[in-house]
Amino acid sequence: AVIVAICLITAGILFFGFQTNNFSMKLPIEPLLVATINTSPGAADLMTLMRYDLGLGFPFVAVISMTLAFSVALFLKHADRDLWSFSIMSIASLLFFQHLGYDYVFLLPAFVLLFSKSRQQLSRYSIAAVSVTILFFFFWTKIDAIFHLMTDFITRLVGASLLALSLFVLVRDHRRVYQAQDNRVGGSIPGG
After folding, report:
1. Which of 106, 114, 135, 142 is 20 to 30 A away from residue 27, measured at CA?
2. CA-to-CA distance for 146 and 168, rounded, in angstroms?
3. CA 127 to CA 172: how far, in whole Å?
4. In whole angstroms, how far apart are CA 47 and each of 1, 3, 29, 40, 135?
């Protein structure tokens, strides 16, 4: 799945390069540049925390964010199967890459997961972490925007921490469930 994704991205870059006669070495990272240069700081992501709050340079931040996102994708053996994997990748994207407040609609797959048939396989920690994360982004950030109860840095830090916690417990539960299924069938999860 990762090789197919890399091939599709490469094909898209080549197609764009042929269409625009632009084969700059900057072309593969252009979406990240546009997302970070032409927008305000994100609401609660690691790219914003590293760039705006820690003062790290863009190339370093981009490499760290892409490496972390790729690492999460490697943990998902059955990434093409279900809403659970989609929820994990949505949360990973929100955590690792710069997003503005309206992008947190991508928490909806995790919200739907809480009410799906897969709910029985989620630990109470996953249910609690995802619920608190959703409440934070859909309610607390709106209240905070009106009354300024926390600084922007604290809001970003709390939001990123909640996303990281949700991501961790969902990946842990996902691996536990699919590893148990694979062990019943006779397979195993690489590196598991």
Report:
1. 106
2. 31
3. 13
4. 25, 25, 14, 12, 22
d(CA 92, CA 43): 14
Ramachandran category for residue 121: left, alpha or beta (phi over 0 → left; psi -120 to 50 → alpha): alpha
Q: What share of the chain is helix, strand, coil (3-state, %, to 5)?
A: 75, 0, 25
From the list 9, 13, 36, 11, the residue with the least C-alpha distance to 24 is: 13
Contact status, residue 44 vs residue 137, Cβ threshold 8 Å: yes
pLDDT of residue 167: 94
Nearby residues of 192 by Cβ (< 8 Å), 6 or more positions away? 77, 175, 179
Tokens of 176: 């536990």
Q: Which residues of 111-146 are buried (b: 16+ CB within 10 A; e: fewer)?
A: bebeebebeeebeeebeebbeebbebbeebbeebee
Percent of the chain at pLDDT above 70? 81
